[in-house]
Amino acid sequence: xxxxxxxxxxxxxxxxxxxxxxxxxxxxxxxxxxxxxxxxxxxxxxxxxxxxxxxxxxxxxxxxxxxxxxxxxxxxxxxxxxxxxxxxxxxxxxxxxxxxxxxxxxxxxxxxxxxxxxxxxxxxxxxxxxxxxxxxxxxxxxxxxxxxxxxxxxxxxxxxxxxxxxxxxxxxxxxxxxxxxxxxxxxxxxxxxxxxxxxxxxxxxxxxxxxxxxxxxxxxxxxxxxxxxxxxxxxxxxxxxxxxxxxxxxxxxxxxxxxxxxxxxxxxxxxxxxxxxxxxxxxxxxxxxxxxxxxxxxxxxxxxxxxxxxxxxxxxxxxxxxxxxxxxxxxxxxxxxxxxxxxxxxxxxxxxxxxxxxxxxxxxxxxxxxxxxxxxxxxxxxxxxxxxxxxxxxxxxxxxxxxxxxxxxxxxxxxxxxxxxxxxxxxxxxxx
Length: 432
Description:
Blueprint: E1 3-5, H1 9-20, H2 27-43, H3 45-55, H4 69-77, H5 81-99, E2 106-111, E3 114-122, E4 125-129, E5 132-133, E6 138-139, H6 141-154, E7 158-163, H7 173-182, E8 186-189, H8 192-201, E9 211-213, H9 218-227, E10 232-233, E11 241-246, H10 252-263, E12 270-275, H11 278-293, H12 298-308, E13 309-313, H13 317-327, E14 331-335, E15 351-354, H14 360-365, E16 391-399, H15 401-417, H16 421-428
Parallel strand pairs: 1-13, 4-7, 4-9, 7-8, 9-10, 11-12, 11-14, 12-13, 14-15
Antiparallel strand pairs: 2-3, 3-16, 5-6
Helix pairs in contact: 2-3, 2-8, 2-9, 4-7, 5-6, 6-7, 8-9, 10-11, 15-16
């Protein structure tokens, strides 16, 4: 892994390349996704089955498109005690964390005769998307948990899960076990852009939802972007990112492992170490190659490391923090002697992992916070998926006659200033 001294022109170019990599939607991608969405909107379940048969499984029919109760029961019987233990821990800890995010409705009387407030309500229906890695053989259980749990905590009554089937027309049993543990009863066998379209527009079998969340490939991301005017979405997720700030006390083998944990995601993944120790930089660089060669996904991780990986040696940790805030990484690990001393300086990050025993995968699965995080620098203005994504806030206002009379003139003045005479008349007519 290449080492750069920062600041320098060479280091700045690598930093800027990382910032600029983003999500690239070609015109062809947009046209293809729009065609899928339009077709699903027009033909509904017929289009869903056609695309599912073509791209995922010829075994799925209209009658087998929705997962049955028997399929849930069969899936649960296949689970090992070890998996169920891990699943229960994850569900318990994620639910506890997201429960702290619930907001209550409130009312206040700030002036005599005036009541204002805010009513917090869950959306009626939500859709969760879980990708079908390796043809559904690698179940992304965590996607079900991270999407379903905040929706359930928010109080959403109807939650639908869309996930592509395996070649035999079945859903990986681990995904069904996770869906049942979260409280999701409606699971449908469809993936990619057409699944997003079904959730956004509704079909005979798939309920139309108000919010769609969950990760996916470029077609899923683009479909969510297109339908975002019709439904709410969590975010447009870009490639995975990790930035590690470390000093001489950090373990180079652990840092190398953490960098590779994100590099293995995809070719555009970014893995960056920023350190004030030249010695540590050399040790981490040396540790990367043997760990990389042992990975099943070494080709993907290796290309990501070469294109968007870097070890940046900075003058001091303060410079490292400034650089981190500029990059606004999805995952930020602080592996220094006293990590909490620097926490108040962190302005932009999706999630912060503090100390040597807090690798990023702890947050991916069981720590509690959501792992659906802003990428591509959007942590400057956006946040992790949370309960608030599944709620809406309605303002409440009440005036007594006396309070209305007291403030009416000011409203009329402001309305007339904006040349909105009907607004002014709506107030003045009540004074006659």
